[in-house]
Amino acid sequence: MGDLGPAAYEFLEFLASAGQSIWQMLPLGPTGYGDSPYQCLSAFAGNPLLISLELLREDGLLDGRDLLGAPPATARVDYAAVQQFKLPRLEKACRSFLASGGSPAFDAFRAAESTWLEPFARFAALKQANGLVTWTRWRQLDHPTLETLRAHEFNQWVFSRQLERLHAAARKRRIRLMGDMPIYVAHDSADVWSAPRLFQLLESGEPAAMAGVPPDYFSATGQLWGNPIYRWDVMEEDGFHWWIERFRAAFGTFDCVRLDHFRGFQAYWQVPGGETTAMHGEWLEGPGGRLFEALARALGPLPVVAENLGVITPEVEAIRQRFGLPGMAVLQFAFGKDAQGSSFQPHNYPRGIVAYTGTHDNDTAMGWWQSSGGDSTRTAGDVEKEKRFACEYLATDGREIHWDLIRALEASVADTVIAPVQDLLGLGSEARMNMPSTLGGNWLWRLQPGRLSGEIAGRLSRMAECYGRLP
């Protein structure tokens, strides 16, 4: 499925040769049901499946035989096969490590990260003992063994070390790592289980109110995410301590962070528990600038990109501008109905913006171009008008629409331009990462070895040089 090992360093080499300076990643937390990185088992922990067994072999904790029989590097990840292969080997590495006496570095990590690490290790151990069902259905509540707890703590330590090593290699190549912070946490998470007072829950532990967004481009019934809503009043009582620690951890890992669903901090769409769509919700006021004031006091300037897509109010933009957070623009949204004068069109960009061909929620550029509109609320007629306007705007016949979109962004005044790797390869809808408001079939695409050629790197590098974007 890809990990923090040799292939990640090969990707850094590609980025450097292509004149690129940012590698943006999806959230790297441990995923639960559905494998979504936006429904993680912890807001602080890393995904053990991203640990490189090759690097553990270099550390002497595994041998060459442990790497045999790995699942094939197909374009669609089989997460069950990855877990069956990798988790026993991580357990073996932990046993080898503890048998050797451990290390002061591991002890220091446990002490420094104990606030979140201890609850997560207990949660993960109990979840495993209860057949991985959600915590509200647990029956076995016995205290986990020390060996089991240490195994989960060991995985987090190794994940942290391998990511730090990758980050150091990126800095040498003048490449920044951009993380991604979901606004909400999963209901089935160590965060909710260990601190239920911070969330709107029923006595049963189930969400009393759920997060989502009203009907939008992707769904006529809205998007019901199902995450529990925060009790913002309770969080504010201690100066937003939980949020400060969450951002502190993110800034310690990444050079900058994309903050998902930024508008939800000013006002959020709340859906009553038990609803099956997001249609019957209401907008409620969030903490707004008070949260970001607390963050800035504790952490200084915030290296954050605000995901300000969707219906954005002046109040939302006022908060973003007040704290100097760049917003986002998605070029796929620039050509549809009511496009004239759209802020998504490059000639209307301000300089302080991060512009994308598309995001993980969009189809790929080629998939969008070839679509008949079934992936959104667009009609077939809407799609045809959109394509005609895009051809006129981009002066293209559409044969290389992915490169046309990339070039339009590179030539814009946007400070930062990012393209999904699928768009570099010109892949179609088969490589789409996520279809909002759908279950199953998402988060499966992976970049296969050898797909990123020197020709692609050269083309990107020449474009970056042409438009003054080399690092």
SS-based class: alpha/beta
Strand order across the largest sheet: 1-2-5-8
Shape: globular
Number of helices: 16
Order of helices and strands: HEHHHHHEHEEHHEEEHEHEEHHHEHH
Poorly predicted regions: none
- Roughly how many Å is the radius of gyration? 22 Å
Strand content: 5-15%
Distance, first to last CA: 30 Å
Give the beta-strand count: 11
What share of the residues lie within helices? 25-40%
What would your notes on this structure say?
- With 471 residues, the protein is of the alpha/beta class.
- The protein is 39% helix and 10% strand.
- It is globular, with a radius of gyration of 22 Å.
Secondary structure layout:
Elements lengths: L5 H12 L4 E3 L28 H6 L20 H21 L4 H9 L1 H16 L16 H27 L3 E6 L8 H5 L14 E5 L9 E6 L3 H6 L3 H13 L2 E4 L7 E6 L9 E4 L3 H11 L4 E3 L7 H9 L4 E4 L22 E4 L8 H6 L9 H15 L6 H10 L5 E3 L2 H5 L28 H13 L5
Parallel strand pairs: 1-2, 2-5, 5-8, 9-10, 10-11
Antiparallel strand pairs: 3-4, 3-6, 6-7
Helix pairs in contact: 3-6, 4-5, 5-6, 9-10
List keywords for this structure.
10% strand; 4-stranded parallel β-sheet; 39% helix; 471 residues; 4-stranded antiparallel β-sheet; alpha/beta
Quick summary:
With 471 residues, the protein is of the alpha/beta class.
